[in-house]
Design goal:
The chain has a two-stranded antiparallel sheet. It has one domain: Orthogonal Bundle (MetI-like fold), CATH 1.10.3720. It is mainly α. It contains 13 helices and 2 strands; from the N terminus they run H-E-E-H-H-H-H-H-H-H-H-H-H-H-H. Helix 11 packs antiparallel against helix 12. This is ABC transporter permease subunit.
Length: 296
């Protein structure tokens, strides 16, 4: 067997578990949803004949004309919540990744483990922990009331702020690790050279550090934006009725207000939007010429 064939076989072998996982838990459910999305809904909300495009027309709404104002607000809220979560995660993750990259070698594995450990706990358990921390008469709610953020008779939970905190806490490791990996491959001597040439700290950051870490930033953005945009658990538990997101709207079509074809069509559209976001971010990563972009 030639060297190229051996390499191809090894790549296929190592890729097989990931491809199997994607096939079983993404491709197969999507294929099962597709027939339901084209079905009609019977009086009980279950799929029935005849096959129709009315559900997709309602979802797409021909420039939103077919959507109710409440559903439009849910879509807008989901997009904004995903973007704000991504930006907030980046603001927190960048200095954390920098601190880890500048730490002593024997401390780096420990710090990375501390970042990753919360992800080992079920997201529902973490959401309930934050519900206790943000509830009435807690220190965080009292602090928010003291600075005038909320009224004294209110609490941070349930609210959109609680959802944001829960999402940032859940997805922060996925922003920290790619940025840290990018910083580990940086040429720090360029920063020293820029300082020797009397470059300001802002210039060093914007012209030396940021370009070299852009690949990690975009990879982290992919890993945070897509799941936070479609998250279901955290808005359901921490947001209340006024903080519903697209994932909650889809879940409601299979539970409280059953309309399976509508829910299936929403799911297909959500997956399509997620893939579009991935393609855009992948293109941006490739344009930066980063090694991370080549791996996507």
């Amino acid at each position: 067997m030639s060297t190229d064939s051996t390499r191809s076989f090894r790549k296929a072998l190592f890729s097989a578990p990931g491809l199997l996982w994607i096939g079983l838990f993404l491709v197969l459910p999507t294929l099962l949803f597709l027939p339901i999305a084209f079905a009609s809904a019977n009086p009980y909300g279950l799929p029935a004949l005849p096959i129709t495009l009315d559900t997709f027309k309602e979802v797409v709404g021909f420039m939103f004309f077919g959507w109710t104002p409440a559903n439009i607000m849910i879509v807008i809220r989901s997009i904004l919540q995903g973007l704000i979560t991504t930006i907030a995660s980046l603001i927190v993750a960048f200095p954390v990744a920098y601190f880890i990259s500048q730490s002593r070698s024997y401390l780096k594995p420990l710090l990375l483990v501390l970042i990753i450990i919360p992800s080992w706990t079920n997201q529902v358990v973490r959401a309930y922990a934050w519900m206790e921390l943000l509830g009435p008469n807690t220190m965080l709610s009292q602090l928010a009331a003291a600075i005038g953020w909320i009224r004294p008779d209110m609490s941070l939970y349930p609210s959109g702020v609680a959802v944001l905190i829960g999402l940032v806490y859940s997805y922060l490791p996925y922003m920290v690790i790619p940025i840290y990996a990018a910083m580990e491959g940086m040429e720090w001597s360029l920063c020293e050279a820029a300082q020797d040439l009397y470059a300001s700290p802002i210039a060093v950051f914007s012209r030396v550090i940021l370009p070299q870490t852009m690949g990690g930033i975009i990879v982290g953005t992919i890993l945070v934006l897509v799941p936070s945009f479609s998250n279901y658990i955290i808005p359901e538990l921490m947001g209340g009725n006024k903080s519903l997101m697209l994932g909650n709207l889809i879940a409601n079509q299979f539970s409280s207000t059953p309309d399976w074809p509508y829910g299936a069509a929403l799911s297909v559209v959500l997956i399509g939007i997620s893939f579009i976001l991935l393609l855009i971010l992948k293109l941006l990563t490739r344009l930066t010429g980063s090694q991370e972009g080549a791996m996507l």
